[in-house]
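Dear support,

Our group has been running a series of protein-ligand predictions, and this particular one with adenosine-5'-diphosphate is the one our PI (initials K.S.) wants archived with full inputs and outputs. We had some confusion internally about which version of the output was final, so please treat the block below as the authoritative record. The input we submitted was:
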Amino acid sequence: MKKPTIKGVLAAVSSFLLFFLTVGFIVSCCMMLFMTILADTMDITFTSDNIAAAAKITFWNVILITFLFKFADYIRRKIMVERPTKIITAATEKIMSGDFSVRIPPMQGSGVEGFHQIAMAINKMAEELSGVETLRADFIANVSHEMKTPLAVMQNYGTLLQAPDLSEEKRIEYAKGVTDGSRRMADMMTNILKLNRLENQQIYPQASEFDLGEQLCECLLQYESVWEKANIEIETDIAEDVKVKADAELLGHVWNNLFSNAFKFTPSGGTVKVLLTATDHHAIVKVSDTGCGMTPEVGAHIFEKFYQGDTSHSVQGNGLGLALVKRVIDIMQGEIGVESTVGVGTTFTVKIRRS
Ligand code: ADP
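Confirmed final output from the archive:
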């Protein structure tokens, strides 16, 4: 039990006095009214002894009523203020210590509606926090997992490189293995950092007006050696003079990711198409391929971080590309959709505002 403090005692005494004075005033007024009515209607004359006796009774009545009121108020406070406060404080302390599974039961009854609202808001907060915590834990697990593979590969090649009298051919092969592994890790780190900055809104779109068709062609041309080597046919239908006001660098990430996926998942002899159309307010870009396609189950997850539906190409990516694309499109308040059929191909459609 808590030790009473001087402040607490003073507060209790002053509250008791306030009750006492209020009740005393009301009861005295009632008594005086009652005695005046009696004197007028029944012609009773009160002696000073009568009045002194009535005053004494009134005083003790006032004390009794004050105690009764105080007691009723004490019970009301216990049930309607202290109990919910205790429950809410215990829940917030648990949340502070990292236990986000805590939920406060609904508080029923009149007079506790305010506490009920606070409790529901705390429940919602705990739910959100536990979601964030799961995401954070998943993210760390994914990053660690993704780093382990290239690190193991690099370690392997490093060990092989230490062997004496290695042929020139083998030395180049092992050194390439180390370089590829480190490039993969560097790519992943760059993507994680970009995604992190985008998620924390540290990158704000630097809008400038530019020709979207030109940008698409420039990005596509970067893959010339890829499509030539893989014997992939390119088809373009790009509307002329489609100006957009957007962050060109961020939008470049979108096209690069969509093109690199299209080439990655399209086998030799296939086709990749890029289409640009525009209305007065929007520009629509479609990137289609005749690649392996994906099932609806895979399609439902492709924008999640580290998700890789097709693991046969997992060495060439880390499942962050489309998460980044989605984030950029969200920041630009655009839309992205995907249509895909296994064995037939995939079409990504991006719709962005022109200004
Ligand atoms: P990654 O860099 O590993 O490819 P992405 O985020 O770019 O990661 O893509 C996630 C997944 O989406 C891929 O593993 C693949 O299953 C699917 N995907 C993306 N683009 C295509 C495509 N053009 N054709 C088929 N599947 C695709």
